User: Fold this.
Amino acid sequence: MFHFALLPWFKSGESGWFHYIIQNRYSGFGILMLYFVAFNLILKLKPPMFMNAAVVWLAGLYFYKFILYPPIPWTLLITYMMLWTIGTFLYISQDPKTFTEFRQPIVHTILAETKGFRIARLIVFTALPLLVGFATYDGLLPKFQEPVELRTVHPAPPATTRVHGKTYQLEGLTNPFRIDEQDNYKDSFPFLDADKQEYMKYVTEGGTVFFQNCHYCHGDQLNGLGMFSHVFNPTPANFVDPGTIAMLRESFLFWRVAKGGPGLPNESTPWSSAMPPWEEHLKTEEMWKVILFEYWYTGWHPRTFDDESSVKGGE
Assistant:
């Protein structure tokens, strides 16, 4: 009932304080968990340890598969569920009493000492080979991939984009923190020169945000080889490659960073992008500073507009 009736309502919230605090998927999941806890406390239920472990494990699976947004690749889902399974096992094996209680239904099913457990064993031992066989068949079944040429590497941006309640005209938009020529700071270093040079102060702040949020996918060296990069298709952008940010304007990067994968146009699907919409996590100035840092670190220069059409703000 929650998945088909209530979750769509929680996911349909518009922007605003009500959406960010109450009407969103994470609040809905939290309310569902609180309902389970309150239901057991009020009725003074004492479910067996095996059922407790099953509910905890399934709650984790439901969160990672249906609640977490944007959706994560199946390989990353397996990684998270392995960690969740280890945590669940530690929970049920915290002492000999709870672990013995957890093992009881499994042992009784295997030994089949009563008629009920004999039926349960028959069902389990029949279903397991069927499930394994189906999973193997589904994994080996050839999948026809869409032609690569359908995907646009650098999709055309919209004329305007709205970020944090402000509309930006992308044509002619420039980075408000690019206050000087970056080549003047080739021999400068973030943090060391942040207090001496205003430009390096902005680069340092952008680098701090990058290593707090972006390096997991784009890598410590901005080469697209972060610790999570190999589970994505396509892989995260390699900023060192001359075919990426060196060919783009900063306004394009601002749009892409703010809107992430969900903001891509149709021609970028079905592969799309796993990057989250960072406007939901970062301030506008933080996104601009990250872009400034990426260009300074790689040494590339953004494509620029004519001076007459360059502006530094939004409408």
User: Anything to note?
Assistant: DSSP finds eleven helices and two strands in the chain. Residues 115-140 form the longest helix (26 residues). Confidence is low (pLDDT under 50) at residues 307-315.
